[in-house]
Amino acid sequence: MITVHKNSDGALIEVELSGEVTSADYTNTLVPAIEAALSEHDSVRLLVIVGHEFKGYDLGAAWEDTKLGLSHWRGFDRAAVVTDKGWVKTSARLAAPLMPCPVQVFEMAELEEARRWIRESLGSIHITDLGGPCVQISLLGKLDPKEYEQAEADLDATLGDREGFRLLIDLREFDGWQGLTALAAHFRLARGHVGQLDRAALVGDKAWQHMAQRVGSHVLGTRTQFFPPDEYENAKAWLMAG
Fold it and tell me: Model-level pTM?
């Protein structure tokens, strides 16, 4: 059976699997809970507790699980699986790279850690006015879509009525995006301000970041330059020169 715990709230749903899970458990319990949350939120976070008494799925439940994932593919912001069952851990880890959101597996003894992880923000975006036409965006940790909503408001406030600006993108502590929706939010933010961009310096330590700078320079027709982490001050100087 599937039990939706009473402490589930808003966009966070905590469920427990026990015994044999059937298609009726999905139809009558889990799907209504997810759809109710999605009617009020753009995405949901799902914490699944798989106890020792869990025996598995019947064939109908396996099909319902597949349909749930496909029909709400972009609706999941983050998922955690808490279990001591080896085959469940292996299944969750194999499925994780295919999911559009971060998936983390925890032991039963780590239940409270899993609850903290499912609630917290894994990353943040900081906007800093460097003076003159120069602005710095620092991407920290692993970003979710909500961070981009606040970043857009902060960037607009910092830019004010400037006709153009120069951008320092600091990726020294950037760990990536929490799923496809966060990546899409990143591109929306960039697209909304690229027309004002005069010059961009990117500071990072990964090959894909250097590649992104090269592609961006070619596609956008904007002067860009990549700098390794130990040349952060040089990046600022290049941005402000001329």
Answer: 0.55
